[in-house]
């Protein structure tokens, strides 16, 4: 009887141990995700997060188009941009600056508010830029110049609060 | 004693089975390629002044959605020439509508029948191509043949001094 119990107990203990190992692995696989890095850089561009006062910042779909292929004239715009300040702790957001190749092209000011919204229809047609010759920006013969499109919230001291910067290719000017 | 002899093989088999599960481990899965779906709606050719040889192509909307952020952007081409590029910025979707490009993309209206249809003018091929990072081959593409209103008026050639 005793021997029978010993023979049956060994595999039961073995299986129990195996089950514990599997459960531990499963819980490790389902562990909480690690926090996102402070700054993000990739083929789309660069996102630099600002102080904790800025709770939300989003740049969406920068684009460049060429209305007339016989003219070296392209237009850049941003489909959407939004930034939100928590409004309770300094620094406080005062404005948002849109620049192309470090040249400011639009400055949107806050007026007793904590949010700034921008959409493409606020700049009808977009910001005019030269298209550039084929492959001028190194993106291939379908594309001309490449532009750095940057949106940067600015605080009350004139200091930037992080930024979103996209590398944007324009269609080539090839008459 | 005889009972033990009967149970022992069974116990050994159980142990072997348990070991095989432990040693096998999880199979290695290769990362699946991202997927991209694009929808284009109502490409249109417009001749605003009736007595004009210039038409505008507008696209009511284009929407694109990818399974991850490897989606880099969308090209809009007319007759093989890239006329617009809409990029993503750490996002998996792209939206485009006709109001984003002013009056639209300038094209020639063309004479009656020049596009093969006896009622309309020129035909222009409007296509979109969506790309994923690391690939020059579009992950999604589509082409629409758009007929324009005809223009049978006088075409003025530019004055060129030699």
Considering the chains and any ligands shown, give keywords for the structure.
heterodimer; A: 175 residues; alpha+beta; six-stranded antiparallel β-sheet; four-stranded antiparallel β-sheet; 10 strands; B: 162 residues; mainly beta; 41% strand; rod-shaped
Task: Explain what the structure shows.
The complex is a heterodimer of chains A (175) and B (162). Chain A has 175 residues and is α+β, with helices and mostly antiparallel strands. Helices cover 16% and strands 44% of the residues of chain A. Chain A is built from 1 helix and 10 strands; from the N terminus they run αββββββββββ. Chain A has one helix spanning 2-29, and strands spanning 39-42, 45-48, 54-65, 74-85, 93-100, 103-109, 115-119, 127-129, 143-155, 163-171. In chain A, the strands form 2 sheets. A 6-stranded antiparallel beta sheet of chain A has the order 1-2-10-9-5-6, with no helix packed on it. The longest helix of chain A is centred in the N-terminal third of the chain and has 28 residues, at 2-29. The N and C termini of chain A lie far apart (97 Å). In chain B, strands 1, 2, 5 and 6 form a 4-stranded antiparallel beta sheet that branches. Chain B starts with a helix and ends in a 15-residue tail after the last strand. Chain B is built from 1 helix and 8 strands, in the order αββββββββ. With 162 residues, chain B is mainly beta. Classes of the chains: A alpha+beta (175), B mainly beta (162).
In a nutshell, what does this entry contain?
The complex is a heterodimer of chains A (175) and B (162). With 175 residues, chain A is α+β, with helices and mostly antiparallel strands. Chain A has one helix at 2-29; strands spanning 39-42, 45-48, 54-65, 74-85, 93-100, 103-109, 115-119, 127-129, 143-155, 163-171.
Secondary-structure blueprint of this entry?
The complex is a heterodimer of chains A (175) and B (162).
Chain A: H1 2-29, E1 39-42, E2 45-48, E3 54-65, E4 74-85, E5 93-100, E6 103-109, E7 115-119, E8 127-129, E9 143-155, E10 163-171
Antiparallel strand pairs in A: 1-2, 2-10, 3-4, 4-7, 4-8, 5-6, 5-9, 9-10
Chain B: H1 2-24, E1 36-46, E2 54-66, E3 71-78, E4 81-87, E5 93-97, E6 105-108, E7 123-132, E8 140-147
